[in-house]
Write a structure and sequence with these properties.
Blueprint: E1 3-4, H1 6-13, H2 17-26, E2 33-34, E3 40-43, H3 44-58, H4 63-67, H5 71-79, H6 84-101, H7 104-118, H8 120-140, H9 146-166, E4 176-182, H10 189-200, E5 204-212, H11 214-223, E6 228-232, H12 242-252, E7 258-261, E8 276-278, H13 282-291
Parallel strand pairs: 4-5, 4-6, 6-7, 7-8
Antiparallel strand pairs: 1-3, 2-3
Helix pairs in contact: 1-8, 3-5, 3-6, 6-7, 6-8, 7-8, 7-9, 8-9, 9-10
Length: 292
């Protein structure tokens, strides 16, 4: 059975840990267990409760009123939220609750419903990326069971690939962008999304995928005219050194512009070679793709 720390709840719900502690003291909807060293632990059911409470509180319901509601009342109030942002957050929360419950039928159904209503690009930008942002750090730090991660990420991966396959096959120019992930990196969803956006805009993409040895990348750049190398780095295996990786990329070719994105790049503060650009947010990545 999954258990979560108060920091996990803070990460997923957006509610500060000290606020959660105050709620525990004043109200009854959270009853955490404590370890022998007096550290709070929360069950999957309590994670679902905090997601519901935080959503209603964010959109105008007082905590004291929520505390008096039955679970059925809470679900009805959540379904009754009409604001656009509230709807998006409700869907993301529901995906999280389905993931921790291992209810993958509902997880996939919700994604399919949103795709049918909004299209794959909006589903990715409005729902999937928000979902990954909230639970991704927990995946990387092993605070979520690997079974939960694999089931959820594989469904998401299938949806993005389906979106790519449905796009028309045309190319507006001669630019070739090579997409790849370094050896030991297997978190593919971010790179697949970039593939989707580039193909949607008519660019020519060579998709090398995950766990690419640099010798293979070097071979490709020697055989074809490549305009950009694009790598997405989230959480490679232990032993990966980002500075060394960038140095090795320079040894392949210093004339081809290189773009690096992903979780690992968000807080990078080191020196970057002149031919390498770092994108530290989805917004920066979208701006870059628009400027191509």
């Amino acid at each position: 059975m999954s258990s979560y720390t108060i920091k996990d709840l803070e990460q997923i719900s957006g509610i500060k840990a000290h606020t959660i502690r105050i709620w525990e003291q004043r109200y009854h909807f959270l009853q955490p267990q404590r370890t022998e060293t007096n550290i709070r632990t929360y069950s999957a059911d309590e994670l679902k409760v905090i997601l519901n409470v935080s959503l209603l509180n964010k959109y105008g319901f007082k905590i004291s009123h929520i505390d008096k509601m039955t679970p059925t009342d809470i679900e009805e109030k959540i379904m009754g939220l009409n604001q656009l942002d509230a709807e998006k957050e409700r869907v993301v929360n529901s995906l999280i609750k389905d993931m921790v419950s291992l209810n993958m039928i509902s997880f996939e159904r919700q994604l399919d419903t949103y795709i049918a209503q909004k299209g794959i690009e909006k589903t990715i930008t409005e729902i999937i990326f928000s979902f990954l942002e909230r639970v991704g750090v927990l995946w990387i730090t092993n605070h979520i069971n690997p079974a939960q991660e694999h089931l959820a990420s594989n469904i998401i991966r299938q949806k993005v690939i389906l979106g790519i396959e449905k796009l028309p096959k045309f190319y507006q120019g001669s630019k070739l962008i090579v997409l790849f992930m370094p050896e030991g990196e297997y978190h593919e969803i971010g790179l697949l999304f970039v593939h989707f956006l580039l193909k949607q805009r008519g660019y020519n993409v060579d998709y090398l995928g995950t766990n690419v040895p640099l010798i293979d990348l070097k071979y490709l750049t020697e055989c074809k005219k490549v305009d950009y190398l694009y790598a997405h780095i989230t959480a490679p295996t232990k032993g990966f050194k980002l500075n060394k990786f960038m140095e090795q990329l320079g040894e392949i070719n210093t004339t081809i512009p290189i773009v690096l994105t992903g979780q690992m790049m968000q807080e990078f503060k080191g020196t970057v070679p002149s031919h390498i650009q770092i994108m530290q947010s989805l917004g920066q990545t979208m701006d870059f793709l628009t400027s191509l």
